[in-house]
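New to this. Explain these tokens.
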Amino acid sequence: MLELREDKSHLYFPDKCIGCATCVAACPKGELVIGSVGAVARGLIDKDFIEKRCQACVFCGMCAKACPTGALAIRKVEEKEGAKEGSEEDGESYLHRAISPTVVDDKCVHCGLCADVCPQGCITVTDRELAQDGSLRVEGKTVIDQELCVHCGWCEAVCPANAITVSKPFSGTFFRDENVCQACRTCVDTCPCNALFNRDWGPGEIVEKVTHSLTSVLKTDRKACLGCGNCVIVCPVNALSDPYLAAGHLNELDNKPLLEVENGAIVVVDQELCGSCATCSLICPAEAIWLERREVV
């Protein structure tokens, strides 16, 4: 639960959350912030993808309506026999109403390929046996859990019988700018569809990518900085300085290469190492660090 008031509760279901930050963008009050998605997805820290400030929320429910996976909900709290119970308040999101379910039709041969490739493990194949009519046809049950399905299309792509139909909720093409990418693998680790891959890097290759030509400069406001160290932890340049150190313990590392908290405020140690990924500015709760375009002399 993110927040409880007298008549309403704001619920969060971490198992459904994919860390897409759609709720963060939808919140008109800026109440939701995205956490250390990469570190959480890797299991390096025990936290949730999103956090709530609990300062100005008006319980409008926009976050719940925008969430593509149903990970957020606003519920009315009712008093019943001395106990508080919650009833769903318009629980389905706009996307839930718009998305068509993934369908398996009669052409299915129950081969199990879809279950093998499903990144969410939401497909099960049971009761497989040869038909009793002597046709060598395989009968069985192939069931898709619609609550877990993220409509990635893997099952449809591998189905040899064209028996699966997937309606994707979003359209577009993923593009990675090789001049900016630091190969931090956050996108690879957090993608719920296993749609992104990184090739194996040779010794020194990632370091070479971090030292590409800079287009931006890190700016900080030491008066606004809370000294929380979130930017220090999520900075991929800091993380690369010790690949065996969990992100949650980066604050314990001496001589960090890019970002450090000194005397209670953030300091940019070496501007030239910054890869302009803006992860630090996204995670900062006080907007005390940001990127500005570098002037070309």
Summary: Residues 80-84, 86-91, 207-212 have pLDDT under 50 and may be disordered. The chain has three domains: 3-97, 100-165, 211-293. The domain at 211-293 is CATH 3.30.70.20 (Alpha-Beta Plaits).
